Amino acid sequence: MDKSACFYLGRIVSKYSFKGEVLVKLDTDDPEIYENMESVFVSLGNNLIPFFIKRCRLHKSNLLRIDFEEVKSESDADRIMRSELYLPLSMLPKLTGNKFYYHEVIGFTMIDAVHGNIGQIQSVNDSTSQALFEVQKGDKVLLIPINDEIITKVDRENQTIEVATPEGLVELYLS
Q1: pTM, whole model, 2 decimals?
Q2: 129 found inside a domain
Q3: In 3-state terms, what secondary structure has residue 138?
Q4: Is 85 exposed, middle or buried (0-12, 13-18, 19+ CB in 10 A)?
Q5: Does residue 43 belong to any structural domain of this protein?
Q6: Which residues make beta-bridge pairs with 85?
Q7: Pairing between β-strand 6-15 and β-strand 84-88 as defined by DSSP bridges
Q8: Domain that includes residue 17, residue range
Q9: Each residue's pLDDT tens digit in the chain (175 positions)?
Q10: Which of 20, 27, 71, 170 has the smallest C-beta neighbourhood within 10 Å, fewest atoms?
């Protein structure tokens, strides 16, 4: 399985018991939908390795307590500590309305309420405190905040995102 065909689910953050159970910090708003998984892909080195799950359940708010079939001891758990977990993109819940996954909108055209077509979304930068669309317009890259107040419509059928950018933002890049 290739990482490009998967989405990041979370990271193993600690051991839970001497029998090899681990706690996974999930990267999701709905952790309960991952309670009854049968398997996940664990990133080890440059490979995604399938691991089968004996039992998994929520532990506190966004931690998942997992008992893997292949992990039977503390030393087994040490070998996968801090590893990232992935699932196939096909397992992502479908979003509707103005909600979207970052990977889903790459290539969409961004339409501003004042300026019209301001370019094509090339990527999403979520390494900053405010996630940003990176929008290519000719030889310029516009950084548009991903914010519910700015995004007015996500049109999956026509692959467009309509926005109402703050006054002066687009001019900052295109002037």
Answers
A1: 0.69
A2: yes
A3: coil
A4: buried
A5: yes
A6: 10, 42
A7: antiparallel
A8: 3-91
A9: 788 889 999 999 999 988 999 999 998 878 888 988 999 999 999 899 999 999 999 987 779 999 999 999 999 999 999 999 999 988 888 888 888 888 889 999 999 999 999 999 999 998 888 999 999 999 999 999 999 999 999 999 999 999 999 999 999 988 7
A10: 27
